[in-house]
Specification:
The protein has about 270 residues and is mainly alpha-helical. The protein contains seven helices and four strands; from the N terminus they run E-H-E-H-H-E-H-E-H-H-H. The longest helix has 28 residues. Bound molecules: NADP nicotinamide-adenine-dinucleotide phosphate (NAP).
Length: about 270
C-alpha cells in the first residue's frame, strides 16, 4: 500500500468534456474568490449590522426566504440532484462526503433561517443573488467531485480522510454553538436587553474572537478540503476565506465602534492571530 498518493482517487478522464467543465469552473471559482475578497475588503455586504451604513442592493425580500433560496436550493436541492443524476460513481466514501455536506446545508439553508432572530425581517435581493450564484457554482463542482471520484479502498485509513473529518466535525460544532449563542442574545426573556439590539457576546470562543461562527465554518471547510483532497474543496475554502476574513474585520471594527467596553484583547477571526 502506498502511504501518500498525490491522487488518492481517479476522476474524469483527462481531456474529456466533463473534465474541462469541472476544472474550468474550478478556475472560474478562483477568479470569483479573488474578486469577492477585493469587493468585501472595500465595503461590508449590506445586511444585518452593516445594512445601516451601507444600504441599497435592490428591492427587499423576506430575509428567511432569502437565506433558504441562497443556501438550501444550491446546498441541498441542487447538490442532491448533481450527486444522484450527474455523478457517476457511488461508494461508501462518496456517501460519507454527501452526508457531511448535507449536515451543514440542511442546517444553514433550512433550520438556521427559520430559527434565527434577525433584526430586520427583510433583506436586499442583491444579498440573496450574491449568495445564490456563487453557491451554485461551488456546490456544483463539489457535488460533481464527491459523486464522480473513485477513492482508493484504503482511503478510510488515510490521515487526510481521518483528520479532515475530525476538523469538519469540530468546525461544525463551533459554528453551530456560536450562531446559537448569538441567537440567545436576542432572547426576549433573557438576561440581556433582548429585542432587536446588538450586545457584546461573551463566553467560549467569543472571549478570543469576534466571529467564532465564521471561524468554525472556516475550520469545517478546511476539514472538507483535506478529507476530499480536491481542488473543488480548496477553491470553496478560498471563497469562504474571501468572505470571512474581510467580513470578520468589518464586524470586529463595528463592535469596537459601538461598544466602548469591547474587550481589547479579542481578535477578529483567528484566536491570538487575526
Ligand atoms: N460560506 C459562506 O460563504 C458564508 C457567508 C456568510 C455567512 N455564512 C454563515 O452563515 C451564518 C450567519 O452569517 P452572518 O454573516 O449572518 O453572521 P452574523 O452577522 O454573526 O449574524 C448571525 C445572527 O446573529 C445575530 N447577531 C450577530 N451579532 C449579534 C450581536 N452582537 N447581538 C445580537 N445578535 C447578533 C444576527 O442578527 P442580524 O441579522 O439582525 O444582524 C444574525 O441573526 C454563519 O454561520 C456563517 O458562518 C457563510
Amino acid at each position: 500500500m502506498v502511504l501518500f498518493e498525490l491522487k488518492p482517487w481517479t476522476f474524469y478522464e483527462e481531456g474529456s468534456t466533463r473534465f474541462w467543465v469541472h476544472y474550468g469552473l474550478v478556475i472560474f471559482g478562483c477568479v470569483l474568490a479573488a474578486i469577492t475578497a477585493c469587493v468585501q475588503c472595500c465595503k461590508p455586504a449590506p445586511y444585518g449590522r452593516h445594512e445601516m451604513e451601507n444600504g441599497g442592493w435592490g428591492p427587499k425580500i423576506p430575509q428567511r426566504l432569502s437565506h433558504i433560496i441562497s443556501d438550501a436550493l444550491p446546498g441541498v436541492v441542487m447538490f442532491l440532484l448533481v450527486f444522484f443524476l450527474y455523478g457517476s460513481v457511488r461508494f461508501y466514501q462518496n456517501y460519507v462526503f454527501l452526508v457531511l455536506f448535507l449536515l451543514h446545508y440542511i442546517h444553514r439553508g433550512i433550520i438556521h433561517p427559520l430559527v434565527m432572530r434577525y433584526r430586520s425581517p427583510m433583506v436586499y435581493i442583491g444579498i440573496c443573488i450574491g449568495g445564490f450564484l456563487p453557491n451554485c457554482i461551488f456546490h456544483f463542482i463539489n457535488a460533481d467531485f464527491i459523486s464522480s471520484a473513485t477513492y482508493a479502498a484504503h482511503y478510510y485509513y488515510d490521515p487526510r480522510f481521518i483528520l479532515g473529518i475530525i476538523l469538519y466535525i469540530i468546525g461544525f460544532v463551533i459554528n453551530r454553538w456560536a450562531d446559537w449563542r448569538l441567537r440567545s442574545l436576542r432572547n426576549t426573556k433573557g438576561v440581556v436587553d433582548g429585542g432587536t439590539n446588538y450586545n457584546i457576546p461573551y463566553g467560549g470562543l467569543f472571549e478570543l474572537v469576534s466571529c467564532p461562527n465564521y471561524f468554525g465554518e472556516l475550520v469545517e471547510w478546511t476539514g472538507w478540503c483535506l478529507a476530499t483532497w480536491s481542488l473543488a474543496g480548496l477553491v470553496w475554502l478560498l471563497f469562504c476565506a474571501a468572505t470571512f476574513v474581510p467580513g470578520s474585520r468589518h464586524n470586529h471594527l463595528w463592535y469596537k465602534q459601538q461598544f466602548e467596553l469591547y474587550p481589547p484583547s479579542r481578535k477578529a477571526l483567528i484566536p491570538f492571530l487575526f
